[in-house]
Amino acid sequence: MATRSILLFLLLSLPVSLSFVTSRTRGISSSSQRTTILPGTAASNLDDAVLDSILETAVDASKAAASIIRENADGSAVVEKKSTTRDLLTLIDPLCEKAIREKVVENFPDHGILGEEEVKPGIQASIDALEAKLLDSDWLWIIDPIDGTTNFASGIPINMPSIAVAYKGEVMVAVLNDPHRDELFTAVRGRGARLNGDRIHVGLQETLGEAVVGMESPAGEGSLQQCLQGIEPLMKSVRTVRMLGSSAVFLPWVANGRLTAYWTPDECAWDIAAGSLMVQEAGGKCTDILGNEYNLRTRNLIASNGKIHDSLLTVLREDASLSPLV
């Protein structure tokens, strides 16, 4: 009961508006049909001009979606509850995804696209969709038109479009565009991460006691129990914990030092692919709860400034006795 009360307090403590100054790997069962993802191997084969062109298109696409979100920032009617009553779709989500897709198809008609709104609800459906797309094309755009849909539907300004572009399974370009704070986060593998054009870096905290940690309670099966299990030992170990309902917001906040770390027990590729590259390119670290380096199949994500990463893993894996959901 005490643990549930703590979680409820965190959820209800969300401010109406925020303003800031300038931060398990699973797949389909047939392993013979899975594309092998080897981190760090794809970038050396790519021309800078190609990445520049992709980044430019991704930025334009994110701006198109961000404009739609901004125009409807007071909230939108929920038209569908997807996998659970906590997983929503609004009238605006498909419009944002359509705007992004049009930009991609116009400039890169031969590239694959994986968008949240085209995938059936449920964990296995999202896993299967990713595997199918990885087999279908070397280049894959991974899109969440509005990450933080529940916030958006409620008029809470903590949501944004998320765009990641992967080559042979490795994320090469990431764009996260916050329409509520006019903050454009971009990253290209090997070139660092930027906020509105300026380089950003993770925070300098060296101990868990100094750490401000973000976490989420996703809609998927088992996620709530993992959060309840993890939050008490986490709160006893860090400076404070925050829950705001959007991986696409929290991960770039780790990248620019607003947060020291972020943990989520189960997310789809479109929720965390762009933000994970952002953290890595800002000097941070991204793994699953077992300590394996992030890749597109990772669902249980821990992202941090790197300095407190092992300590955070210990708290979640040993003190909270957590393991991947599947």
From TrEMBL:
Statement: the UniProt record of this protein carries the keyword Cytoplasm: no
Residue spans crossing the bilayer: none
Listed EC numbers: 3.1.3.25
Reactions catalysed: a myo-inositol phosphate + H2O = myo-inositol + phosphate
Secretion signal, residue range per the UniProt entry: 1-19
Top-tier EC class: hydrolase
Keywords: Hydrolase, Magnesium, Metal-binding, Signal
Pfam families tied to this protein: Inositol_P
BP-aspect Gene Ontology terms: inositol metabolic process; phosphatidylinositol phosphate biosynthetic process; signal transduction
Entry binding sites for Mg(2+): E116, D144, I146, D147, D271
Swiss-Prot/TrEMBL cofactor(s): Mg(2+)
Pathway: Polyol metabolism; myo-inositol biosynthesis; myo-inositol from D-glucose 6-phosphate: step 2/2
Molecular functions per Gene Ontology: inositol monophosphate 1-phosphatase activity; metal ion binding
Family to which this protein belongs: Belongs to the inositol monophosphatase superfamily.
PANTHER family membership: INOSITOL MONOPHOSPHATASE (PTHR20854), INOSITOL-1-MONOPHOSPHATASE-RELATED (PTHR20854:SF4)
Protein name (Swiss-Prot/TrEMBL): Inositol-1-monophosphatase
